[in-house]
Design a protein that fits this description.
Number of helices: 43
Helix content: 55-70%
Structural class: mainly alpha
Low-confidence stretches: 611-688
Distance between the termini: 165 Å
Strand order of the largest sheet: 1-2-4-3
Radius of gyration: 43 Å
């Protein structure tokens, strides 16, 4: 046999590139490799970039600067599964960077990312694609894109994934999307509530928490609450509250229950299963402030429905709320006060708080927190409305002083509430008398000047309630409160104008205040208001008439008549008929005017005079230049007999010729008659 000859290895083809192993330590080099046509290089480059991005936010920003995002987006649709998987993993990490998110929206890659949620894809692709969507869904524009590209349906499907990371990312993305009402409606169509409820059974607290937060938003819709009830969701929530180990979920669970309690059928279900008592006991006995606060908020939401209030009252919810008022946490105090405000619509609840609750609320009026004071004052305002016993209880519990102090608060709501309580207290005469010692009228000066229409309205209403007494009107007048009150008559707000008119009507009960109001222009403003069909009201008309009745001289000059109830007194004068809108000068100013050929002004004065009029010839008057003539009561009677009309004459009676000098005429009588004449009414003619 011949010797074997060793076969030589065939050389590689000349057109094939020899394999090259490269070790790169620069991210920029690896980014360049993303444009390679070789699948293996692409896969390894993506893997290296993923590890680099995991190290921190600075690296993500570096990749963005190097231009890695755009070539990576092309790899999301690559034919090779490994390349596609690695690229998806990178975007799951990079999408937490705000600048990357912005660029991804501009590149419009949402459809490519959502495509990675297809059922046939690997679990790891589902994980990072859902993570990318969860990060991007925090932005409103991205939410719109996810919904437009049909991303909600695959996300709901992935809630049933066996992988906890996929579940967590999917429910987080859905939670972000539910901030938009369109998404909530779409979730209802996709029947998303049952799979979300299933997440409450998860062994991972973060998944349970996200599920509760999502339910807390979508159950704001009535249809969602019905679906939750039909799927025994309330039972799941009550069980969470009963489990001490799940105390980190109690706050969110209470938020969902709060929404459910707005639904009457759900509330009845909770009450029938004993869940309502458990809820109230849980709220009262919990040591966690946020839990107590959310429980009180749940009661507040539900108590806006009359039937719900009735059920709550039967369960003695008032005891729980009074206990919560004693919490050390301001948030709990506020929530409890708001719940009491809502429960006040129930008469039985109002009566309960008369003995328990009002003293605690008065203590809260002295709190350092303005929000607490506002919430407490709101509760007291509702408690005293149409309930004299509660108003009396506030006065007896020394609640007036803190209420007066709140009138100077910086929070408009607190000021309006305090004014309402004071108005309710002032409705009772014995209590109203006591208010004056606390300086209520002076304290209302600030609220009357407020720019807030609610505060203006409540302040004017309080003036109307408190100014029934002379002392209150005097204090208001002396403190300068009439001026801002008159200005409120010009308000374009109907309620403000109505309450201001009411207050003016009450203040015009005495002549001094009525005259001052007229000086400030109240009569002119009311006259203008009453000419408008849309602006006038019964109070504006009544206030106008009240002002005239306390200024009979003006009323006579404007209308030409006085009613049988109008009794003239000293100081009444007949100027003559004036046109609407014309100001009637006061008597003091008329005395200072030079005489003219205009009609004389008649003055009634029954006061005795220390100055004896000079004697004159019987039955005649002496002309002494120009001035005024004084005629005694007998002359007045004699002149009256000559007139054809009786009672109060028209301001347009026939004028006498103006004398050319000062004339003083005395009636027939002796010196001994003078004393009695001076005590009678005198007719004073001012020749102007």
């Amino acid at each position: 046999m011949g010797k074997k000859v060793k076969k030589e290895a065939e050389p590689p083809p000349k057109d094939v590139f020899d394999p090259l192993t490269i070790e790169s330590k620069k991210a920029a080099t690896v980014v360049l490799m993303l444009n390679s046509p070789e699948e293996e290089i692409l896969a390894k480059a993506c893997e290296a970039i993923y590890r680099f991005a995991l190290k921190g936010e600075e690296n993500k920003a570096t990749l963005l600067e190097l231009g890695a995002v755009e070539p990576l987006t092309k790899l999301l649709t690559h034919e090779d599964k490994i390349v596609r998987r690695n690229a998806t993993m990178i975007f799951g990490i990079l999408a937490s960077n705000n600048d990357v998110k912005k660029l991804l929206r501009e590149l419009d890659v949402m459809n490519s990312i959502i495509a990675q949620l297809a059922p046939e894809e690997e679990v790891v692709i589902h994980e990072f694609a859902s993570l990318c969507l969860a990060n991007m869904s925090a932005e409103y524009t991205s939410k719109v894109q996810i919904l437009e590209h049909g991303g909600l349906e695959p996300l709901v499907r992935l809630l049933a994934s066996p992988d906890p990371d996929v579940k967590k990312n999917s429910v987080e993305c859905i939670y972000n999307l539910t901030q938009d009402f369109q998404c909530r409606a779409a979730l209802q169509e996709l029947n998303a509530i049952p799979p979300i409820l299933d997440l409450l059974k998860s062994e991972y607290p973060v998944i349970q928490l996200l599920a509760l937060k999502t339910l807390g938003i979508i159950t704001n819709d009535k249809e969602a609450r019905t679906t939750l009830r039909d799927n025994q969701g309330v039972d799941h929530l009550i069980k969470i509250l009963e489990t001490k180990e799940l105390n980190d979920l109690h706050i969110e669970a209470l938020s969902v229950i709060a929404n459910c309690l707005e639904d009457m059928d759900t509330l009845v279900l909770i009450q029938q299963t004993g869940g309502l008592k458990k809820l109230l006991s849980f709220a009262e006995n919990s040591t966690i402030p946020d839990i107590q606060k959310n429980a009180a908020k749940a009661i507040t939401k539900a108590a806006y429905d009359p039937e719900n209030r009735k059920l709550f009252h039967e369960q003695e919810v008032e005891k729980c709320l009074v206990a919560l008022l004693g919490s050390e946490n301001d948030g709990t105090k506020i929530a409890a006060s708001q719940a009491i405000s809502a429960m006040c619509e129930n008469t039985g609840s109002k009566e309960f708080f008369n003995n328990q609750g009002i003293p605690q609320l008065i203590l809260l009026l002295k709190s350092d927190s303005e929000e607490v004071r506002e919430a407490a004052s709101l509760a007291l305002a509702n408690l005293t409305t149409c309930h004299p016993a509660n108003a009396k209880a506030i006065a007896e519990a020394d609640g007036v002083d803190p209420l007066v102090n709140i009138l100077s608060s910086r929070r408009d709501g607190a000021v309006a509430n305090a004014a309402t309580v004071l108005a309710n207290v002032a409705m009772q005469e014995p209590l109203r008398t006591g208010l004056q010692s606390h300086g209520v009228s002076s304290a209302l000066l600030g609220p009357l000047r407020s720019a807030n229409t609610v505060v203006q309205s409540k302040a004017a209403l309080t003036v109307a309630a408190t100014a029934c007494d002379v002392e209150a009107r005097t204090e208001l007048r002396n403190s300068g409160g009439l001026e801002p009150l008159v200005e409120l008559l010009r308000s374009k707000h109907d309620e403000v104008r109505r309450h201001a008119s009411w207050a003016v009507m009450v203040c015009a009960s005495d002549e001094l205040t009525a005259v001052e109001l007229c000086k400030l222009g109240a009569l002119d403003i009311l006259e203008e208001v009453n000419l408008s069909v849309s602006r006038k009201n019964k109070f504006s008309e009544a206030a106008y008439n009240k002002l005239l009745n306390n200024n009979l001289s003006l009323k006579y000059s404007l209308t030409g008549y006085l009613s049988s109830s109008n009794i003239i007194s000293d100081g009444f004068y007949d100027y003559g008929r004036i046109n609407p809108g014309t100001k009637l000068l006061p008597l003091k100013d008329l005395c200072l005017q030079e005489p003219s050929d205009q009609r004389a002004v008649l003055l009634v004065n029954s006061k005795s005079s220390d100055v004896s009029p000079p004697p004159s010839t019987e039955g005649k008057s002496s002309d002494v230049g120009y001035g005024r003539s004084i005629s005694s009561s007998s002359s007045f009677r004699r002149a009256s007999k000559e007139k054809t009309n009786t009672g109060f004459g028209s301001p347009t009676e026939e004028k006498s010729e103006p004398p050319s000098g000062r004339t003083t005429a005395l009636s027939k009588g002796t010196t001994k008659e003078r004393g009695s004449r001076l005590l009678r009414a005198q007719l004073v003619w001012f020749i102007l």
